[in-house]
């Protein structure tokens, strides 16, 4: 592919099919992304792109639409939670081998010349080390990285106790990627039309859920077992306590999202009545289900506006809020 024009046309056509047109800011970003992708897949040197800004401005949509337009392959897409799940499994596969982490990174990214990394955020020091090594490895291989995030590079790993651990990663981003901000007054997710399937078909309700009179269903992921209220593909029903008070990780949510296309979560309490660990698990759960386009019905003790008002200012709550606004009110 010698020109970005076909990619631009394909992405704009997808927008028209979905009933909207790109705004001027999105168009500028798309042109930048398309040029980078065209150069990378043609084997020409290409700087990567780090695209950040508030939730709901179209960052992930643009990256996903561009990736889908690359019909001839040569690109890999990874999501934050899926990346760490795959990487840790690959590191275990290569344990005992020289340079196991690099081998695992190469497995995850394949032979691609272009890697899309969606929803990049860093709150954990261990994640910071692995993300730094990922960027280093892609630079070593001459790969082009396109990353989306809600955070400016220097806002990643914001905890002042740990921030210094990601300074090398921030330096790599600012040296090898063009940093672009996509903002604007409109959160487009709040204007999304109702859909008959997928995440947007879900409902946030304060009504009592239907009673299920069976014993909890045990679900297993590798050697771990978790009880949920009911599970029979394609439906899964679980309480907030089962999914978020228990030590469930994003890897389990991701595994179940591949099997169960319709989730019902019951007993969701007000945001300020649960601890930090349960809050972060709920944020991770919404990330995973939205990314997998799973139909989600929520039965909560307060309406969505009250729930989100109490979450303002918490880590990653703005991203969760943008996604939950896609749900209909029951």
UniProtKB/TrEMBL annotation:
Gene Ontology biological-process annotations: cell division
Domain called AAA+ ATPase: residue spans: 45-183
One Gene Ontology CC term in the entry: cell division site
GO molecular function, a single term: ATP hydrolysis activity
Pfam families linked: AFG1_ATPase
Alphabetically ordered keywords of this record: ATP-binding, Nucleotide-binding
SMART domains recorded: AAA
Listed NCBIfam families: ZapE (NF040713)
This protein's name: ATPase
């Amino acid at each position: 592919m010698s020109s970005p024009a076909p990619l631009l046309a394909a992405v704009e056509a997808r927008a028209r099919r979905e009933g909207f047109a790109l705004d001027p800011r999105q168009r500028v970003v798309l042109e930048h992304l398309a040029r980078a992708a065209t150069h990378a897949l043609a084997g020409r040197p290409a700087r990567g792109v780090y695209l950040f800004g508030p939730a709901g401005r179209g960052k992930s949509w643009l990256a996903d639409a561009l990736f889908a337009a690359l019909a001839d392959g040569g690109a890999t897409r990874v999501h934050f939670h899926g990346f760490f799940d795959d990487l840790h499994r690959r590191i275990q596969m290569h344990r005992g081998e020289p340079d196991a982490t690099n081998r695992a990174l190469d497995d995850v990214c394949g032979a691609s010349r272009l890697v899309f990394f969606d929803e990049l955020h860093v709150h954990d020091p261990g994640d910071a080390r692995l993300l730094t090594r990922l960027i280093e490895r892609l630079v070593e291989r001459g790969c082009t990285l396109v990353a989306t995030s809600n955070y400016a590079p220097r806002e990643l790993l914001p905890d002042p106790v740990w921030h210094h651990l990601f300074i090398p990663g921030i330096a790599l981003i600012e040296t090898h990627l063009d940093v672009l901000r996509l903002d604007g007054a409109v959160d487009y997710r709040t204007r999304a039309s109702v859909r008959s399937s997928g995440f947007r078909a879900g409902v946030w309700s304060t009504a009592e859920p239907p009673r299920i009179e069976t014993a909890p269903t045990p679900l297993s992921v590798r050697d771990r077992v978790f009880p949920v209220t009911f599970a029979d593909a394609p439906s899964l029903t679980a309480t907030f306590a089962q999914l978020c008070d228990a030590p469930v990780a994003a890897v389990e949510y991701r595994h179940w999202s591949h099997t169960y296309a319709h989730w019902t979560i019951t007993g969701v309490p007000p945001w300020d009545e649960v601890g930090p660990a349960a809050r972060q698990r709920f944020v991770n759960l919404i990330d995973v289900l939205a990314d997998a386009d799973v139909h989600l019905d929520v039965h909560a003790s307060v309406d969505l506006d009250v729930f989100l008002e109490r979450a303002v200012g918490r880590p990653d709550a703005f991203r969760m809020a943008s996604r939950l606004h896609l749900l209909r009110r029951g």
